[in-house]
Amino acid sequence: MKDIEQSLGVYKVTIDLPLWVNNIQCFLFKGEDGWDIVDTGIYTPGAMEKWKESFRKLRINPLDVRQIIITHDHVDHFGAAGELQKLTQAPVKMVNKENSLVKWKDWLKEILHEDSVFHFFGLPKELKEEVIREKGTQFKNWVPSIPETEDIRAQETIVLGCEQYQILTFPGHCAEQICFYHPDREVLFAGDVLVTPNHLNATNQEPLTDYFKILELLQKMKIAYLFPSHGKPFARVDIRIGLIAEYRKQQMSELKEHLSKESTVYQAYLFFLSRGALTDLFFGLTEVYYFLEHLVKLGELKKVTREDCFYYKEVNKNEMD
């Protein structure tokens, strides 16, 4: 895999994350007249020092950075973009979605508002208040400044380093994210396209359906090497994606069997937690919520709302008949 990275002129910058994953892989692409960045990680003093250390190691003058590309508007991918823009003076580019970065704090307020779906997950009051307080503080600290952004929605290709890539836009993990595909090398920089939906996103009501469709599409593409944002690059991509899809479907099957008795989102989360499948409470709850809603859409669970709480239960076979 190192040979592929060297031939493409790409260097990984690993930023630590205090989240459900330990780190994120950001990328530096070396061009003839400068460098390009894909994703920035969250902002922390340690993260900024990691970027400066990478610049020193690769002998990069920050002003030689040509552009900063954000794959999607989740905080672990764009949190440091504003500070990196100040350091490099480079334009920040993404699929703008009416400048979703500017609106992300409004999104945070919306999902933590008392009327949001988050408050129907069945968390004990004290725990819910703790999660809201913790995430509100973390997210604000991780994004001290919002960069000005340029919209690349109309672009079909982009030059990263010295190579031209196709820009592919996918739903699923979030409402919209971009990946970069090199058809000649059969290489995909995939962002979080393989990660199940785990952010509350009112613009996409059936994210798991999109997620599984994208996995099927990727299996049919000619991809020899895939670089994810979380985890190591890998080959034998079609087999690996097939295993991921099978694992996610197995999770839902186990969840359905567990729900012979009525359960809240939080109780379903605890079931997965006991099996070592989830860690971060906030994102884990959202992931489980999407699983449950998907099974409701498939007619395999029924859902009722009582006293500001969602309850899910397996549909009795007699009811299905």
Assign a percent range to the helix content.
25-40%
Oligomer: single chain
Low-confidence stretches: none
Distance between the termini: 52 Å
> Radius of gyration in whole Å, from Cα?
20 Å
According to CATH, the fold-level topology of the largest domain is Metallo-beta-lactamase, Chain A
Secondary-structure-based class equals alpha/beta
Strand content: 15-25%
Morphology call: globular
Number of helices, where a helix is a run of at least 4 consecutive DSSP H or I residues: 11
Order of helices and strands: HEEEHEHHEHHEEEEEHEHHHEEH
Strand order of the largest sheet: 1-2-3-4-5-6
Largest sheet: 6 strands, mixed
What is this structure's SSE topology?
Layout: H1 2-8, E1 10-16, E2 23-30, E3 35-38, H2 45-57, E4 65-69, H3 75-78, H4 81-88, E5 92-94, H5 104-112, H6 125-142, E6 149-151, E7 157-160, E8 163-170, E9 177-182, E10 187-191, H7 207-220, E11 225-228, H8 237-258, H9 265-274, H10 281-297, E12 301-305, E13 310-314, H11 317-320
